[in-house]
Write a structure and sequence with these properties.
Layout (H helix, E strand, L loop, with lengths): L5 H15 L3 H21 L5 H24 L3 H14 L9 H13 L5 H12 L5 H14 L1
Length: about 150
């Protein structure tokens, strides 16, 4: 069984620090993320691991990136800047990014083994990098490798 999440504890500690500093934007951000973590815990019906918490944080960052695009398209740069600031606060909680070449090697192994369909390649590669690499990056590399080969 995986150990309970230390990352959730770090989020709570940062929330308490933000509260003491009366930093309302950070307090709201950490409160929102912790609520999402607790919701995920209820969904799964078990204590979360660090990988589970990273997944919740990644999802939050992805949502904020989508919001940035929408705000920029609507010329609401003030709101886009706020979302970008939140992303900058959350990114340090993520593990270091995997080198794209490592992903590329894994994709080439799967393709060399005879798998040529996008969905099947993704199905074999994604679990190896779950929580460690952005799905968009993996998807792009799989497309490039299938077109090249």
């Amino acid at each position: 069984m995986a150990p309970p999440s230390e990352l959730a504890g770090r989020l709570t500690a940062d929330l308490n620090t933000a509260r003491r500093a009366q930093d309302k934007p950070r307090t709201l951000l950490f409160g929102t993320v912790i609520a999402a973590v607790k919701n995920r815990e209820l969904e799964l019906g078990r204590a979360l691991t660090d990988d589970d918490v990273v997944e919740v944080i990644r999802k939050g960052i992805k949502t904020r990136r989508e919001s940035v695009e929408q705000y920029q398209a609507a010329a609401r740069h003030d709101l886009a800047d706020r979302e970008l600031a939140e992303i900058a606060v959350l990114e340090p909680f993520l593990p270091a990014a995997i080198d794209p070449e490592e992903i590329r090697r894994a994709v080439r192994e799967v393709v060399a083994a005879g798998t040529r369909e996008m969905g099947k390649v993704m199905g074999q590669v994604m679990p190896r990098f779950k929580g460690k690499a952005d799905g968009k990056v993996i998807n792009q590399i799989v497309r490039e490798e299938l077109q090249a080969g």
